[in-house]
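Why do we bother with holo predictions? Because pocket geometry can differ from the apo form. Keep that in mind while you read this record for 2'-deoxy-thymidine-beta-L-rhamnose.
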Amino acid sequence: MPDRLRDSPLRWDLFCRVVDNFGDAGVCWRLAADLAGRGQAVRLLIDDAAPLAWMAPAGAPGVQVVSWEDAGTEPGDVVIEAFGCDPPAAFVRALSARSVAPVWINLEYLSAEDWVERSHGLPSPQPGGLTKWFLFPGFTARTGGLLREPGLLARREAFDGRAWLTARGWAAAPAERVVLLFGYANPALPALCAALGEAPTMLLVPPGPAQAALAGLALPPALRVRALPHVSQADFDHLLWSADLNVVRGEDSLVRAVWAGAPFVWQAYPQHDGVHHDKVEALLACMGLPVPAQALWRAWNGRPGAAWPGLPGAEASAAWRQAALAFRAAQAALPDLTSSLQAFVRRARGGSVPPA
Ligand code: TRH
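The structure, written out:
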């Protein structure tokens, strides 16, 4: 393909359906803004734009937020449906009416499980002679990688968390460690609070089940809870960069905790059949965490039979910090998700991906 064609900006239609929580909007907004930051023209078609009011109050140049009703029937060059959200039927019919069919991608959920590598890049034939491609984010070179905007790690490196917290009016005392708690409802919360209260701690808690539950708990004197308002995604990153320990959940905050480079505990989105425990084990298997940190992850995720282990001691904590930095470095050495998507689209438009 001539370079001129390969490098010209494309029009991307990114469909997002907000199912629950904030991850659907959060992942899609980050991808939309990252694509636009790389010169692409993006329509983010979202069925409930309400979370964007606090997540991205300033919007982003190059991203147009559109409701599903206004999707129209003139698709761009690339159509991404996030998490199998099924774009409107009239829009899908219009895909095959274009002289060059758009590249149609289903961007799937993040998981470290083995099957992701096998499923990444698989085509699925669709009516009208179209192909839908299944692309997966992930933690290995045989997946699409993680969202990582250009310059992110340099910005993180130059960031002074304590100064930022003070400027926001959330200053930590010099002796206090800073912990961010973003989680689902969790019966282990009292045990975590007791463990955190063994040393001076400022616990930053965004709105949600943890914030609500903490209001009714008797807390140890050394544990100071700060209930936060919703902040923008950029400031959510700043919170993660300011903390000595991050407790995160879902998909997007997991990825951002990786880039923060501090020890973190991940709570998987709980599923009734318990499959989230497999996701936790798969991620643990590639993170190289010391055993006490692994035990904490399992207990925080309510793994059957996992007794509450307390927080890792000094030696394990130091090993945990090293492991967090090593994992970040390993992930940063892989292509980021947006670059992977762009490379895939270039290959698809050039006819060099395997046919369905
Ligand atoms: O909200 P989540 O639990 O979202 C989840 C997961 O994505 C899960 O896999 C999916 O199945 C479910 O949604 C439907 O956690 P997550 O993924 O970390 O998304 C939170 C987003 O909210 C993230 O982009 C950060 C953003 N955020 C802010 O920007 N500001 C805030 O103040 C807070 C609390 C969050």
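The longest strand covers residues 11-16.
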